[in-house]
Amino acid sequence: MNLPTTPATGPLPALLDQPPETLRAWFADRGQPALRVKQVRRWILAGRADSFDQMSDLPRELRGELARHFAALGTRVERHLVAKDDTHKLLLRLSDDRMIECVLIQEPPRRTACISTQVGCGMGCVFCASGLNGVVRNLTAGEILEQLVRLRNLTAAPDGRLSNIVVMGMGEPLANLDNLLEALEVTGHKDGLGIGARHITISTVGLPAKIRRLADLGKQYHLAVSLHAPNDLLRTRIVPTNEMTGLDEILAAADYFFEKTGRQVTYEYVLLGGLNDNPRTARELATLLQRRKAHVNLIPFNDVEGLPYVRPTPEAQATFIDTLKRAGLSVKVRKRKGSEIDAACGQLRRKVEQEPAPAAV
Ligand code: SF4
Question: What confidence category does residue 5 fall into, taking pLDDT thresholds of 50, 70 and 90?
């Protein structure tokens, strides 16, 4: 990538989006040693610096030169909401003015970052606000990393670190796998955020070829497959892309992931009142997953403005859970976190995008 040698007029390129070799060349042009690359990146990734000015072990002149050419962080916080349960939601504005969401869920000792991988989403799951207007673009590796940096900077944990990452925000992570892997490679590094693959969950609606590729990496990422239905007819109603892939292919790929990594796959299931929450569907799901070493994560739907779906009744939830448990499956119900801050994926972004523009003065 060619970087400008004179200050840019538009938004400055974000430092975390620059390949190390490009930064090395930039420093070398200014008579600076290669170790500056590590030093600057470490300030952002581990040292919580969000401006070059804070990088106190760099010569003052060099800090000024860096600030004229790069943004220490290329995203801007458009909104920062904090719920009573200490869940934080950030709406970030990207350099091209698009917006994404990311969330910090704090349940001591766990501090989990939920991040996005795309602007919008092309999967079109019918219950999801993120996919309502389709996908706009993939996030860069730097934009993915910046979400983690910004969320980590909000934690007040004694060790100052995130404990887990779930890639479950806006977008289909496996549709942007290269950039995601590039970002996750950095997070695991000791000069990065210090979060190993075992603490990272990648969620997908099911892109079989990409699941297999992930399995072949030999990494210990945890895979979560968003199932939402036990048969193709119902699943295609809920996840339209299922029509092209089909459940058999997705489950075969997930089985392959388990064989290769030894890591139990989680199946996510959004319970939609009156649609996929009845006892017959629960039995069908139990039969489908029974012979697999699977964990089921049930997510009772939270109302989303403009969508016609409803939360399942407590009775329907209880029967569903009981049916799966009696079949010997490991089941968890996801707790509702940060409900008062529009914590369901994509809702805040949608709300802010629909706000009327401020009147001109
Ligand atoms: S649930 Fe996930 S995969 Fe489905 S539309 Fe929303 S963001 Fe995309």
Answer: very low
